[in-house]
Design a protein that fits this description.
Helix content is about 35%, strand content about 10%. The chain is α+β, with helices and mostly antiparallel strands. It is globular and about 45 Å long.
Length: about 110
């Protein structure tokens, strides 16, 4: 997972679902603040696989058009083999699971 720029920071556009879920953060001003917000996101969502941060200039977000959010599945050769529709409502766990099953398994 690559954590990219925040979609709904409290100082820009806050969604009520964020307030309800207690994930209200202002736009990070530096890498350390972004790392804190990303860590809270990973913990709150219970993510159990590796997560990395996009650099502060958001080059990954720009390259993969992750705004507002998307899930990309990258194969071992670095190719995008699956991409969800824009989210958060475009995410379909069953489609992602099917794409994961198609990936060759490491020996």
């Amino acid at each position: 997972m690559v954590y990219i720029t925040e979609a709904h920071p409290s100082d820009v556009w806050q969604m009520q679902s964020n307030v309800k879920d207690q994930v209200v953060f202002a736009t990070p001003k530096n890498e350390d603040e972004r790392a804190f917000v990303a860590g809270a996101c990973v913990r709150k969502l219970g993510i159990k696989f590796p997560a990395v941060l996009d650099e502060f200039g958001n080059s990954t977000e720009q390259a993969y058009t992750g705004w507002p959010d998307r899930i990309y599945l990258i194969d071992q050769s670095g190719r995008v083999v699956f991409k969800t529709k824009p989210g958060p409502f475009g995410f379909d766990a069953d489609l992602l699971a099917a794409a994961l099953k198609k990936l060759p398994q490491k020996p």
